[in-house]
Amino acid sequence: MEEKTKRIHKVEKFQIIKPVNNMTWEELGKMLRDVRYRFWRLANMAVCENYMRFYHWRTGKTDTNENYKVKTLNRILRKMLIEEKQADEKDLSRYSRDGAVSGYINGAFEKMKLSAIKSKSKWRDVVRGKSALPLFRKDLAIPINCSDHKPRLIEKTESGEFEVDLRICQKPYPRVLLSTAKISEGERSILERLVSNKTNSPQGWRHRFFEIKEKPKGKWYLHVSYDFPKAELLGLDSDIVVGVDLGWSVPLYAAINNGYARIGYKKMKPLGDRIKHLQKQIKGRRLSIQKAGAHDLAAPTSRSGHGRNRILKPIEKLENKIDNAYTTLNHQLSHCVIEFAKNHGAGRIQIENLKSLKDELSGTFIGQNWRYNQLQNYIKYKAEEAGIKVEEVNPFYTSRRCSECGYIHKEFDRVYRDKNSKNGKSAMFECPECSKKNKNYKSLNADYNAARNLATIGIAEKIRLQCKKQGIEYRELPKD
Ligand SMILES: [Zn+2]
C-alpha cells in the first residue's frame, strides 16, 4: 500500500543550538566528531570493498559469496579501532553493541549511499584509470536512519521549541535543541507536521533520514529528509481555477472560475485591525520624535549614544511586531486560499506576477513587496503539498477588465478608485458596456472583479486581444 501512494520527498536544514539533558557542547561535539571519524572510516571501507568485489568479478575469481555487508564491515572496523588504540571496548560499547558506529548509522548508509558505490560502470572507469577511487571526505555528514515507525524523534516542548533525539549511539541518545529563531513559517510547519505524526506512519508526514553536518566549522546542522503523500488524491481538476488578487483595500481576495464563490477579508479582520493599530502607533512615535526636536538626534554625541537608542528602539520594536503580525496574517491567508481551492476541487491557482506590480504595491493593503512575496511563497508551498498547481500570470489590467464581458474600463485606476470610495469602502467596479446593455446590471466589488479575472484561464491573452480591440497599448511582463 505504501508503494502505491505517490510521495513527495524533501530535505530541510536546521541548526543545532545546544545539547539538552545534562550534556555540554564539549561532550556532544566530541561525540559527533568521534562518530563522524568512525563513519568516515566505515564509508571508505565500503568503497574499497565494493571495488575489490568488482575486481574479483572481472578477473573471474568470483568468490564474492562472502558478500560483505556494511554490518560486517562495521564489526571489522571495531576490531581495527581497538588494535589501533583509537578506542577501547568500553568506549565503543557506548556507540554500538558489536560495531564501531550505531546500527541506525550503518543502516542509513546502506540505504542511502551504497547504490552509488555499487555502480559497476564507476569501477570500470577506476580499473581503466579514467577516474580515481571515489573516497569520502573527512567532513562528511553523519547519516541516521529514521524511517522506522517506532520512536518519536522530534518533540515540541511546552515553550514551542523543537528537540530531537540523535540516534548516534546506544541509549540514552543525546537530545538537542533546534534553532527556531530564524526559520520560516514553512520550515516550522514541517516540524509541526513531523511531530504530529507520532508513529511516523506512511499516511502522514514521515522523517526518513537525518544527516548531521558541521558546516561551517563549529556549527552543526541537522538535515531532515522527509516525505508526505502527494495530493492526498483529492481528484482536483486543473480546469477549475482559483484567482488570487492582491486586494486594494483588503489583503487578499480570491474567486473561482466556475461559480460565484469567493473569499474576502472578513475572516482575517482582527489581524488586519491589529496591523493598522500598530501602524498608527508608529506614526505617533515618529511624530513625537519630530516634536522632541531634530537637533537632539543630529547631535554627534547622541548619534550612536543612549539618547538615540531610547528614541528609536520602540519604533523598531513596533516594526518587528508588525512584521510578525504580517507573517501570521500571510500564514492564515495562504491557508484559507488552499482550503478554498480544495473545497471547490480546484487544481490550479493563478496569482499575480509581482515583477510588474512594483509601482502599484505601495497603495495596497499589504504595501511592501516582501510581504506579498511572502504571501505568495506560502501559497506556493502549501499548494504544492496539496497537489495544486500555481501559475503566475501577468496582472496587467486584471483590475480594470470586466469579468462579465471582458471590456476594459481604462479609467478605473487608483485615482478613480480613491475618488469613488465611500466611508472607507472601496469603489465598486461598474462596467460601462454591461451597464449600457443590461438594465439590471449591478456593479461588482472591485477586488472580487479582479480576483475573477485572475481566475480566468488564459487571462493574459484575453486581455491582450481586448486591448487590441479597444486600441489600448498592452504591457507585457518585464523580462528578467
Ligand atoms: Zn462588462
Number of helices: 17
The domain count comes to 2
Structural class per helix/strand content? alpha+beta
Largest sheet composition: 7 strands, antiparallel
The global form is: elongated
Q: What number is the mean pLDDT? A: 83
Helix content: 40-55%
Bound compounds: zinc ion
Query: In total, how many beta strands?
Result: 14
Strand order of the largest sheet: 2-6-7-1-5-4-3
Quaternary assembly: single chain
First-residue to last-residue Cα separation: 45 Å
Rg computed from alpha carbons, rounded to a whole number of angstroms:
30 Å
Uncertain spans: 298-305
> In percent, how much strand structure appears in the residues?
15-25%
Characterise this structure.
- The chain has about 475 residues and is an alpha+beta fold.
- It has two domains: about 5-230, no CATH class; about 235-470, no CATH class.
- Helices cover about 45% and strands about 15% of the residues.
- The chain is built from 17 helices and 14 strands.
- The strands form three sheets. A seven-stranded antiparallel sheet has the order 2-6-7-1-5-4-3.
- A hairpin with a 5-residue loop joins strand 6 (about 205-215) and strand 7 (about 220-230).
- The model is unreliable at about 300-305 (pLDDT under 50).
Could you name the key traits of this structure?
single chain; 480 residues; alpha+beta; 2 domains; seven-stranded antiparallel sheet; five-stranded mixed sheet; 17 helices; binds zinc ion
